[in-house]
Amino acid sequence: MASLVRHPWPGNVRELQHAVHRAVILSRGASLELAPFDTGVRIARNSALQAETFEGAVRNHILEALRETNGVVGGPRGAAARLGLKRTTLQSKIERLGIGPGDVTTVRVPAPRAWPAPSVAV
User: Fold this and answer.
1) What is the band of 100 on the pLDDT scale with cuts at 50, 70, 90?
2) 102, 116 Cβ separation under 8 angstroms
3) Hey, what's the torsion of the CAs at 53, 42, 93, 65, to 10 degrees?
4) Are residues 83 and 77 in contact, defined by beta-carbon separation less than 8 angstroms?
5) 22-78: per-residue pLDDT in tens?
6) Other Cβ atoms closer than 10 A to 3
7) Distance between CA atoms of residues 51 and 21, nearest Å
């Protein structure tokens, strides 16, 4: 509650509504867990500044959400839930913007190798 009161809310009431809505979606359990406000705002502004058009900013924002979810579109932890969209809406936007699997680069950590057990001659 203290972080909600301290935040300057440079947008408007919608910004507060979106923050609470996002917390409801992403929180587990009975209490709301708010993400740090500065981090999300800074990332969104940096992405928007890099794009020259509104469509470019939307494309960058969708790509960022897809990268954060390792390409998962649907489900409670998918990009659609993070963006506050229905899965089908996000899929149509992905198609319209020409976003393909090659655009979403995910970093995969290789699984540890299972070393064979040493053989012991008896």
Assistant:
1) confident
2) no
3) 150
4) no
5) 888 877 778 877 776 654 444 444 554 567 788 888 998 999 899 888 889 999 989
6) 11
7) 26
Residues 92 and 43 in one domain: yes
- 46 and 87 in a single domain? The answer is yes
Closest CA to 47 of 65, 26, 21, 71: 65
Query: Are residue 29 and residue 51 in the same domain, yes or no?
Result: no
Residue 109 pLDDT > 80, yes or no? no
Residue 108 lies in a domain: no
Per-residue pLDDT at 93 exceeds 50:
yes
CB atoms within 10 A of CB 4: 14
Q: Which tokens in the block code for residue 97? A: 């913007």
